[in-house]
Amino acid sequence: MPGLRTGPVSIALRLGLLFAAIAVAVFVAVGAYLYQTLAMQMSQRDDLDLFSKSALVRQILRTLPDGERMPDQIHAVLGRVIGQDGVMMQVATPDGEVLMNTMPQARQLPPLAPVPMDRAPDQSDVVSVNDPHYPARVLSVIAASGDRQLHVTLARIRSDRLAVLKRYAADLLGALAVGALLATALGFIAVRRGLRPLHGVIAKANDINAYRLNARLSLAGVPPELRELSVAFNAMLDRLEEGVQRLSGFAADLAHDMRTPVNALMMQTQVALSRERPIEEYQGLLESNLEEYERLARMIENTLFLARVDNAQLALRRERLDAGAELARIRDYFEALADDRGVLLALDEPPPLELHADPVLLRRAVNNLVSNALAHTPAGGRICLGAHADGEWLALSVSNTGDGIPEQHRERLFERYYRADPARAAGSSAGLGLAIVRAIMQLHGGCADAASTPGQPTVFTLRFPRHPRSS
């Protein structure tokens, strides 16, 4: 019907039909081979029969006396010997006089070249005559009778042989039909049984939902064809579970960090509205609220930046940069702030080093590290910027003489919303500064790490590839 749409054919049905088609093709090929083999063997037997009877006729005719016509007793002998098993004979003189003929009157044989006396007949001397009434294999030989030569033509009627072949073909077609049906049914059953492990995988997958991402497909007893699928499916579940956990943690941390400034804004506003106040207090409240708004804006901006990095929506604009010049520019930018806090901000003059990076993102990453160092370096301390070549990498470093980082915090320093010092939770960074640094380095194909040893400066290092791949 027009517009009727059928669903996709099941794998079991496809494999069953394919198995049936293969079985039918094999049955047809084997049946055709057996039929041709039987037909050839029957034809060869007929030819061998003609060869033996031609030799017998030659032997009998050779016994006739010279000048005598064929005696009646020899005629009877030839009739009894040759007339068996559907073999007919005609004996004629070279001028066409028929001396003996056991063939039907309606039988017309084609002219044949007789086999000479000095040669035994072979396969090439036998001719097939496809007469609809008397199909036969025909052989003509020359036989000697005394001092004269006779043309002997032997015909093996093949009606009975063809009838046998016809019955064999009918039986073969019947066996082919039954075998094809049986192969189709057995193939479909075998495919259904073979796909049972796949149904088990599907049932296990259906049990997995957003609240049960810790479930995994068992690899025990899984066929090799499905093992790779199960391993890939489990790996996908691992990634999904990790992503959901990160998303849940991210949402919880974001809600916690946004709740603090929002609560502060609400409480300050409620206190201000509880009674009439001088204009100066309202102005102070607005200034305080503005700081909280700015903190919220930075938090939202940083969160959006990380989301764009995670979704590969941020394109790099790499440029050839002078590493020393970039660090000097950043040193100059923070120098006044460092002086206000009583911290020395120094720059180790690096050798000429060329850096391939996005200048905006590079400055943002280093700025975050310097801001973090200023927040953790007491007055009288020292912050130093540096750059050096490290094999296939170009390393930028920011070191400070602060209190250092406890070992239990180093592995999580670059996680989102993580703070090694909870007392600084009300600061402006919201725990995203180092996470942004790591995201920027991942965009550049590099990495960020931190090293802190008691009694030694804490060093944050950014490693950029010296020969980045073209993107």
Order of helices and strands: HHEEEEEHHHHEHEEHEEHHEE
Strand order in the largest sheet: 2-1-5-4-3
Q: State the share of residues found in helices, binned by percent.
A: 40-55%
Which regions contain 5 or more consecutive residues with pLDDT less than 50? 423-428
Describe this structure in words.
The chain is of the alpha+beta class and 471 residues long. The chain has 3 domains: 11-170, Beta-Lactamase, CATH 3.30.450; 224-310, Helix Hairpins, CATH 1.10.287; 319-465, Histidine kinase-like ATPase, C-terminal domain (Heat Shock Protein 90, 2-Layer Sandwich). The protein is built from 10 helices and 12 strands. It has helices at 11-62, 72-82, 159-194, 196-206, 224-273, 279-310, 323-340, 359-376, 407-410, 433-443, and strands at 87-92, 98-101, 127-129, 136-145, 148-157, 319-322, 344-347, 354-357, 382-390, 393-400, 447-451, 458-465. Strand 1 and strand 2 form a beta hairpin. The longest helix is centred in the N-terminal third of the chain and has 52 residues, at 11-62. It is rod-shaped, with a radius of gyration of 52 Å. The model is unreliable at 423-428 (pLDDT under 50).
